[in-house]
Design brief:
The structure holds two protein chains of two kinds. Chain A is an alpha+beta fold. Chain A has three domains: 119 residues, Helix Hairpins; 69 residues, Urease metallochaperone UreE, N-terminal domain (HSP40/DNAj peptide-binding domain), CATH 2.60.260.20; 91 residues, Urease metallochaperone UreE, N-terminal domain (HSP40/DNAj peptide-binding domain). Chain A has eleven helices and eleven strands. In chain A, the strands form four sheets. Chain A has a four-stranded mixed beta sheet with strand order 6-7-11-10. In chain A, strands 1-5-4 form a three-stranded mixed beta sheet. Chain A has a two-stranded antiparallel ribbon with strand order 2-3. In chain A, helix 2 runs antiparallel to helix 3 and helix 5 packs across helix 6. The longest helix of chain A has 15 residues. Chain A is elongated and about 105 Å long. The mean pLDDT of chain B is 85. In chain B, strands 1-3-2 form a three-stranded antiparallel beta sheet. Chain B is mostly helical. In chain B, a hairpin with a 5-residue loop joins strand 2 and strand 3. Chain B is 58% helix and 9% strand. The chains are: A alpha+beta, B mainly alpha.
């Protein structure tokens, strides 16, 4: 059956989170609250539009006492049951002949009803009924809303750029998008996918989908804008005497010259070794010095430190 | 699935073109302008020109109106509040970012 019934179609009462005994006022209140939370201009989540559509459809049916009665009597396929069918007779025939036959009566039924909504609409096509979310209610074509989703990237991805396959739930079911990540993308930067946002109604353009880049915490690098920070542990004598050490960068190892007399907290800058900039200078990489002492000294080390302590007049706390 | 394209690159649209592109009546556009919901420039000849970004603003106005049934004066308030929330949320995200 083309466009057959959606297996996951939920009960309208469940969608609005109201009991089947809810009053019209309660239904309206539930709808208003859910609509406020899921309206695509209020909620940028790509799944919100789908929820809003579901909520609107449920409300469309349950807000009208007559269609609600028909929905209660005939269930999800109530639109296929001719107007003049008596609910009680329907229930009796259903109980007697089984649900399949009762449904057949609607689909193949004589008269104007059978031709319109019968066969291919076993699952009601919401699009046709509502014309998208907003159209079809006398509002004319309305463009779709922009949507936003977060895209978590590693520092390496932000550095090199690349492609990422992202799967989103949308009104047409799941869709997989190929997102091109530009090299040098920064935290909070938006990657735009034109026309992939909320759907426009009646031929109006779709909204855009924005991926907001978020660079995941990295065990080694801290990211600030385009600058990268990396810890540089040094032994006390390396820091005091100066040395040359290897520092890991996203591009590979780099030699860094540590000048003599370097204390903890000093930042050694590797110019333009941070995240690249597509239209300008790359950020810098800062190696932050951290002096580390051995947890346990050998006898020889202890002797030498004691000797140093006796000889040195250096007082780090002197003002 | 195909979608209609809207002219985006052209710098601005006059009232007629704007109304046509948004599928609305020029009177409604004028009214929203008077309410400060839309923004436009008036040239020396007195003609109104709308930046293309206003197409998206109009789309949002239409969606809010259709989705909530709020009147156009209230739409102005709602869009202002949504914009302010967007700014605050961005700032909050910025402040919450790890590693600082």
């Amino acid at each position: 059956m083309p466009g057959g019934p959606r297996a996951d179609r939920r009960d309208f009462y469940e969608i609005l989170d109201v009991p089947r005994t809810a009053t019209q006022d309660e239904i309206q209140r539930a709808y208003r609250q859910l609509a406020r939370q899921n309206h695509p201009d209020v909620n940028k989540d790509p799944g919100a539009e789908d929820r809003f559509k579901e909520i609107s459809e449920a409300y469309d049916v349950l807000s009208d006492p007559q269609t609600r009665r028909r929905y209660d009597a005939f269930g999800a396929d109530f639109r296929q049951v001719p107007e003049d069918v008596d609910p009680e007779a329907f229930q009796r025939s259903r109980a007697g002949a089984g649900a399949g036959q009762a449904r057949g009566a609607g689909g193949a039924g004589a008269g104007p009803f059978g031709t319109g909504l019968g066969d291919d609409l076993g699952g009601i096509n919401i699009e046709d009924l509502l014309g998208g979310i907003f159209g079809g209610r006398g509002f004319g074509p309305i463009p779709g809303a922009d949507q936003e989703a977060e895209l978590e990237l590693t520092v390496e991805e932000a550095f090199q750029g690349g492609h990422r396959s992202v799967t989103l739930e949308g009104p047409d079911g799941r869709r997989t998008l190929d997102v091109r990540i530009p090299a040098g993308v920064t935290n909070g930067q938006r990657i735009r996918l034109a026309g992939q946002g909320g759907r426009g109604s009646e031929g109006a353009p779709n909204g855009d989908l924005y991926f907001v880049a978020r660079i995941a915490p990295h065990p080694r690098y801290r990211v600030e804008g385009r600058d990268l920070y990396v810890d540089l542990p040094l032994a006390p004598w390396e820091a005091a005497l100066g040395t040359s050490v290897a520092v890991e960068t996203p591009r590979g190892e780099m030699k860094v010259k540590v000048p003599s007399g370097t204390s903890t907290g000093k930042r050694l800058r590797l110019r333009h070794h941070g995240l690249p900039h597509p239209r300008g200078n790359a950020g810098h990489l800062y190696a932050e010095v951290k002096i580390v002492v051995p947890a346990k000294l050998t006898d020889e080390e202890r002797r030498l430190f004691e000797q140093l302590a006796a000889v040195s007049t250096f007082d780090p706390r002197r003002r | 699935m195909g979608y209609a394209l809207v002219l985006v690159r052209s710098a601005s649209l006059n009232l007629e073109a704007f109304a046509r592109a948004t599928g609305t009546h020029p009177d409604l556009v004028r009214r929203l302008l008077a309410l400060g919901v839309l923004d436009a420039n008036r040239d020396a000849a007195g003609e109104l020109w709308f930046a293309t970004g206003q197409l998206a603003v109009m789309g949002r106005v239409q969606r809010l109106r259709a989705g909530f049934g709020i009147n156009y004066a209230a739409v102005g308030l709602v869009t202002d509040l949504l914009d302010r929330i967007a700014v605050l949320e961005a700032a909050l995200q910025e402040a919450r970012r790890p590693g600082r």
